[in-house]
Amino acid sequence: MPQSLENKVVLVTGANRGIGRVIAETALQRGAAKVYAAVRTLSSAQPLVDQYGDRVVPIRADLNDPQSIVDAAASATDVDIVINNAGIIRPSELLSEGAIETLNDEINVNVSGLIRIAQAFAPNLKQQGGGVLVQLNSVASVRSFADFATYAASKAASYSITQALREKLADQGTQVISVHPGPIDTDMAGEAGLTEIAEPPSLVADGIFDAIQSGAFHVFPDSMARQVWEAYQGFAAAVIEPQDSATA
């Protein structure tokens, strides 16, 4: 169900910095009529407002705060495209005492947050004729890394939920997209010590909007991600992507 971005209304969680900000800017540059900058602190979206004026509407949404997401959906009833970019990574030694607490924090934001977004915004997208739901997952959703094992586990779970949402929302005409970046040049990559191999956030933004236009489900936008995709795409094409596959 390919869709155009022209004159659409887009909501981006975590739009104040990093990948989210670039996604918001790219949406506007590609012809979106309006972007809801969904952020935890409204003032953090002011630079976008300063640059793009009333085409940017700050709206409070915290994936850790279910009521804020419900309230955001009640305000953004005209949204056509919801891009859930926000997430957390907290590197933790897997065998340390704090690993389970870290995992629970990442699951709450990266997995439960996605479900909250889908529950709140699916009716809005249906009202707009179907629309698009985009989830930022990670290459770590299909291949774990020892130093980021809890994060990888949370992203594997969010990828699983994204697949289910694609099936569930198909009847209302909603296109669902799963995005799997490798290291991207953001504050999060810096905190994880991945700056030297990180690539520009524009690769992610362009990959998302190209997928909206083409109708693709998977996006593996950067060099590391494409290497993973080369090995994974055969399985994905045979098992993940068919909409009529039987339930295992």
Overall mean pLDDT stands at: 93
| Helix/strand/pairing category | alpha/beta
* Biggest sheet: strand arrangement: 3-2-1-4-5-6-7
CA gyration radius, whole angstroms = 17 Å
Overall geometric form = globular
Briefly note the CATH topology name: Rossmann fold
What is the assigned CATH homologous superfamily? Answer: NAD(P)-binding Rossmann-like Domain
Count every helix, treating DSSP H or I runs of 4 or more residues as helices: 8
Low-confidence stretches: none
Topology as H/E string?
EHEHEHEHEHEHHEH
Q: Strand fraction band? A: 5-15%
- Count the beta strands: 7
- Tally of individual domains: 1
CATH architecture: 3-Layer(aba) Sandwich
Q: Supply the CATH class.
A: Alpha Beta
- Helical residue percent band: 40-55%
What report would you give on this structure?
Belongs to the short-chain dehydrogenases/reductases (SDR) family. This is 3-oxoacyl-[acyl-carrier-protein] reductase FabG. One of its GO terms (molecular function) is 3-oxoacyl-[acyl-carrier-protein] reductase (NADPH) activity. The chain has 248 residues and is an alpha/beta fold. It has a single domain, classed as Rossmann fold (3-Layer(aba) Sandwich), CATH 3.40.50.720. It is globular and about 45 Å long. Helix 3 (66-75) runs parallel beside helix 4. The chain has helices spanning 18-29, 46-52, 66-75, 99-127, 149-169, 187-191, 202-214, 223-240, and strands at 9-13, 34-39, 56-60, 81-84, 132-136, 175-179, 218-219. A seven-stranded parallel sheet has the order 3-2-1-4-5-6-7, sandwiched between helices. It is built from eight helices and seven strands.
